[in-house]
Amino acid sequence: MTIDTRPPGGTGASAPTTIHLSGEINLFTSAALRRQLLNELDHSSSLLILDLSQVTFCDAGGLAVLIGIQRRARAQGITLALTAPRPYMSRLLRLTGLDRSLRVAA
């Protein structure tokens, strides 16, 4: 799992923070991903975008990380949005019903 963060691009506090994820989100990478995303939440604007376009695999642990980060973000007044999921990831989100609780953009 690789994380590439793009800080808010604008000068206003409302500019989104974008995090580009790549590789696998699984049992071996979930804990580190959770720590990094929690750290990013502390420095995020009102919108945190997770770009999933390069995520090749995600297991139940990875989904749990996304749900936990969404809950923490919401508690901090931050909106979490997932963007550009590959067909595999879109299907996984749809089958688990998470596409209804997580904000997903194509």
Automatic annotation (TrEMBL):
InterPro entries recorded: Anti-sigma_ant, MlaB-like_STAS, STAS_dom, STAS_dom_sf
SUPFAM superfamilies associated with the record: SpoIIaa-like
Lineage: Bacteria, Bacillati, Actinomycetota, Actinomycetes, Streptosporangiales
Family: Belongs to the anti-sigma-factor antagonist family.
Ranges for domain STAS: 19-106
UniProt GO MF annotations: anti-sigma factor antagonist activity
Stored PROSITE patterns: STAS
Name listed for the protein in its UniProt record: Anti-sigma factor antagonist
